[in-house]
Automatic annotation (TrEMBL):
Domain of life: Bacteria
Protein's name according to its UniProt entry: Enoyl-CoA hydratase/isomerase family protein
Classification via SUPFAM superfamilies: ClpP/crotonase
Organism: Caballeronia novacaledonica
Taxonomy of the source species: Bacteria, Pseudomonadati, Pseudomonadota, Betaproteobacteria, Burkholderiales
GO biological process entries: fatty acid beta-oxidation
Amino acid sequence: MTIETSVGEPIATIRLNRPEALNALSFALLKDLSDALDEVAASKARALVITGAGEKAFSAGADIRELMNRDLVAEREGALFGQATFAKLDRLRIPSIAVLHGYAFGAGLELAMACTFRIATAKAKVGLPEIKLGLIPGYGGTQRLPRLVGQARALDIVMSGRTIGAEEAERIGLVNAIVEGDDPKALGAQFAERYTGFSLCASAFARDAVRRAFDVDLSEGLRIEADLSTLAYRTSDAVEGMQAFVDKRPPNFKDA
């Protein structure tokens, strides 16, 4: 299998498992990843950690040999399939964390950018080098990168194809934190713990509100926030959370 999946509670894990190819995202791997994300969505996990097998790469990108000698229809279908697979991360009720412990190039970085958070070890190297092949990113890179780092930085990264080190990636907001350690799964789980103790209802509302801020103007965004905030008040978890505060005890959330 090109994917290893564990859906234990509270943290699910997905490991890209093609270390001999630097975890390149073949179409077979994308299909396995799509299925794995469906499995996680149906589980009781409260966070998802995505890592890559081996010491060299999270994922070095798409499998270039598979991209060659295709007709126009196949090329577009391939791009749409990759985008649809990564979009499943947007629809997850739980936060997802990509652990970048080596190379994360092209489609590998696009996968990481589709996650809620990205953490990196000091040796991580990231970039969108498609321009060097006469191509542009096709799995969401041109859309998610400017939302993370701004238009000017995104244009520089996409149009130069340059490699970015961990420190710069953190400075410009491409990764959330630089972490120390040799076990990507453990690093991801440690980072994820800060998000697993709350109501999944409130967490999902919060993610939805923040994401939609980039798609609408301020007045519409404020309306969305008011609507989602009102929905949050109507949950049993909100009743429990406020009562627990008054009672000076830890809340017992039921995700309802």
